[in-house]
Write a structure and sequence with these properties.
Layout: E1 4-10, E2 15-22, H1 24-32, H2 37-54, E3 61-68, E4 73-81, E5 85-92, H3 104-107, E6 115-122, E7 132-137, H4 143-154, E8 159-165, E9 170-177, H5 185-202, H6 207-212, H7 215-222, E10 228-230, E11 237-238, H8 244-254, H9 256-266, E12 269-272, E13 279-282, H10 284-306
Parallel strand pairs: 5-11
Antiparallel strand pairs: 1-2, 1-10, 2-9, 3-4, 3-6, 4-5, 6-7, 8-9, 12-13
Length: 308
């Protein structure tokens, strides 16, 4: 069964929705690292949420979701591009103890210092354009509530999420109240009533049901009395964008003195991609070529600038 994201809209309510199930991609992510069950649950829920949010991007590019804090789990990261290609990783403290059944606050936000970050990175940036980044306190007892709070605070969008993940699948449901330009007081009241009605219907969904039921069945089961228009489904997949060139650029950014010192201590540099586990090695000759190429590039750019 292909990983699937299904978008839909209510014909008689200003509400849109999405359902996603990610199985094959999720298994590929887990094959690279063996996470404790509570960490796996959080990462899987964030994975489903990333696909749901990225499906609404209005540009080609990347959305990055990060939750970092002061608990035994230092960082959760999901990257998803506009083609729904995903990669994910979690970083644990060296001395991490993961209690069975622990949730978001206990694992990431143990002392209230956690942060939730969404980065939007367009592929075709204008000159000088930087990625947009929103950073807020990690506010909520679950991944779903933290994202709902972010969307209301930063995007002024009424959003509800239901997320579930185990070792086999990550599933999620998103509902958003569509903004309406203008409108009478009666229309506003009707929109609010319709929104509350769809949220009540979706709130009958339980995690056990989400984990055991495919999204087509969930859609029929939840909204069988509603008139719904569905769109062509999309299919999330695993993709890691790491490369030897990108690792080389990272080493260049660290600077030649630091790299030379590391080479003196280690003889060669060994780097593993946190997302896919791909291994890269750079010896003294490799690093000398990196900085020789970088210096040559800078010299050419300076020469080109002096001619104008």
């Amino acid at each position: 069964m292909m990983d699937t994201l299904q978008r839909f809209i209510f014909e008689n309510a200003a509400v849109r929705g999405e359902l996603v199930e990610i199985s094959e991609t999720w298994k590929q992510i887990q094959a690279r690292k063996d996470y404790p069950a509570p960490v796996r649950t959080l990462l899987g829920e964030l994975l489903a949420a990333a696909a749901l949010l990225t499906a609404n991007l209005k540009f080609k590019g990347m959305m990055i979701l990060q939750m970092h804090g002061d608990g035994p789990v230092k960082l959760l990261v999901i990257e998803c591009d506009s083609d729904l290609r995903l990669r994910a990783t979690a970083k644990l403290a060296a001395d991490a103890v993961i209690p069975e059944g622990a949730g978001l606050n206990q694992l990431v936000n143990a002392h209230g210092q956690g942060r939730f970050v969404i980065t939007l990175d367009p592929a075709d940036k204008l000159p000088g354009q930087q990625p947009y980044q929103g950073i807020v306190p990690l506010d909520g007892e679950s991944v779903a509530i933290a994202i709902e709070n972010y969307m209301l605070r930063s995007e002024q969008l009424d959003t509800k999420l239901w997320l579930a993940a185990d070792e086999n699948v990550a599933r999620g449901l998103l509902l958003q109240k569509l903004p309406r330009d203008g409108g009478t007081g009666t229309q506003v009241a009707d929109d609010l009533e319709a929104w509350n009605h769809t949220v009540v219907l979706a709130s009958t969904l339980r995690k056990e049901e989400m984990l055991s039921t495919d999204i087509n069945t969930l859609l029929r089961r939840l909204f069988w009395e509603e008139t719904i228009r569905v769109f062509e489904p999309a299919h999330p997949s695993f993709h890691c964008s790491c490369s030897r060139e990108k690792v080389g650029n990272m080493l260049i950014m660290l600077g030649k003195p630091e790299i030379d010192a590391a080479l003196d201590d280690l003889g060669k540099l060994s780097i593993n991609c946190d997302f896919c586990g791909q291994h890269y090695e750079f010896d003294k000759v490799d690093c000398a070529q990196l900085f020789a190429t970088d210096n040559a590039r800078d010299a050419l750019q300076q020469a080109g600038s002096s001619r104008h």
